[in-house]
Amino acid sequence: MILRALSADLLKIRRKGVWFLVLLGSLGLVVLQALNFGLRYDYLVGKLYKEDAWGGLAGEIFDLVPIVLVLGATLIASQIANVEHLNNSWKQLLALPISRAAVFTSKYLVGVIALTVACVLLFAGTIGLGLILGFSAGDIPYLKLLKLSFLPFLGALPMLALQLYLSLTFKNQALPIMIGITAAIATMFAANYPEILPLAWPFLAYYAKPAMPVASGIILFILIYLFGTGHFVRKDVD
Amino acid sequence: MSELVIQTKDLNKKYGGRYAVRHLNLEIARGEIYGFLGPNGAGKTTTIRMLLGLIRPTMGSIRIFGQDLKKEKMNILRKVGSLVEYPSNYGHLTATQNLEAVRRILDVPKSRIDEVLDIVSLTKEAKRPVKGYSLGMKQRLGIATALLGNPELLILDEPTNGLDPEGIHEIRELIRSMPKQHGITVLVSSHLLSEVEQMAGTVGIIREGEMVFQDTISNLQQQASGGFRLVVSEPQEALHLVRGHGYAGQLENGGLSLEQLSDPEVALLVKRLVDNNHAIYRVEEKRRTLEDIFMQVIEQGGFQ
To answer: Is B128 in the A-facing interface, judged by CB distances under 8 Å?
Structure first.
């Protein structure tokens, strides 16, 4: 049942900008670093990251990963929900013989899939950029780049869950988007936050010991999802 | 009594302290077109949302196809097609894609998309994005969507709202063909009696959340006769004469307004008037339109 809803959702988000945001977020980061390294090649590769060019590239890219992740989660969640809000189609969708839990779960899956695709693109794009910049193909730090691409996402899962819940619940997207943008900006100072704060997790998942932020990220995502499902199943649909 | 497709018992929905629907007992038999009438805000849409499981009743039960909606929601909804108020298509998709998005959830054969497009005559326009459609086309697509799952029951909330006369006619013909051609029971709501009386066999009239009339349309029409009117040369004297024969009547716009009489009584009365040298210009039956009756029912909350 969930798969049927998911297949319908993937059709519905066509031309709604979800995949554009996925491309913009992931490859945008790569293009920024292409400019950064292209303009300051001698300084960055020749001096600053002389010992570890790949590591330098990963570090430069990572600086913007948390903010882009949270921003991406916000905008993608809003677009996923807006497909139904803007067309007044909740009533049509929920009068179909499909459980509300399946409808809700499918929206979450679309969000997770979209951001996962973005992570895969970031991984591939980073390797591609490194190779174009002439870094040694034999030295590619696959594990480090995998961590760079996926661990912050796991740490950002609670934000994705929250944004999906808010966007799906409120017809007016101003509130969820405002919260999301504020949160995205707040991640820039994550190094100063206590570990317990979810906003710090996308950052901590890469830099500190990842076990805590990643595990808590996944757990909190599931909790918010379950709470959201409980609410969605019961609510009256206008 | 034929099988009931929809039966609600003492259905209530309360918002805040106010009842949107109160003590509603809806009964719709298989194969009929049921017109669900009432002014805007009377509780039609609230009732329909409850029938579709979109909102929960505060109290009361709903049985559809003889099954309890609360327990058998999925089984029931599989056999129901619906269109709730204004269209809810995905504007950025074409008609075919819209139907495909719903088809993937219903899991019916792909060929069904072309069939329903054909039923609502949208085959030629099917490849255009829906946001460029006229309201009438959007409503037709909504009906196509409702038909996609081969429903046994069609629930249409104000399907002709906002359409031009041609669009109204098209939708009406479409609805009228449902029981005959497809064996579908139809519940159609409207705030215009004239729209429903041309297709419905039974009507329910709801006012301030309560059902004030539920019967066949012909029984409603029988209430329509409202006496008759005589236009004569000397109304004053004629009235005197009429009253002398024991009939109630009064002057109205230079004519005589009389209560409802049987045919022989009318004939006799006319003969008496002629015998007394009254010139009779006109004998008219005052047929109240259904709209008048509708207004009376709505204003008074039932027939007196």
So the answer is: no
**What mean pLDDT value characterizes chain B?**
88
- pLDDT, tens digit, 9 for 90 and up, residues B112-135: 999 999 999 999 999 999 999 998
Q: Which residues of A touch B53 (CB under 8 A)?
A: 94-95
Whole-model pTM: value is 0.87
B208 part of a folded domain: yes
Q: Residue B256: which domain range?
A: 226-287
**Quick count: other Cβ atoms within 10 Å of Cβ B233?**
12
Tell me the residues of chain B between 31 and 60 that have a Cβ less than 8 Å away from chain A.
49, 52-56
- Total tally of structural domains belonging to chain B: 2
Which residue, among A89, A105, A235, would best test binding to B if mutated, counting the most B CBs under 10 Å from its CB?
Answer: A89
What is the per-residue pLDDT across A11-37, written as a single tens digit (0 to 9) for each? 999 989 999 999 999 999 999 999 999
Indicate if B168 and B243 belong to the same structural domain: no
**Would you say residue B303 lies in a domain?**
no
- Residue B168 resides in a domain: yes
Say what the alpha-carbon torsion angle B121, B127, B132, B134 is, to the nearest 10 degrees.
0
Q: How far apart are CA B258 and CA B252, in angstroms?
A: 10
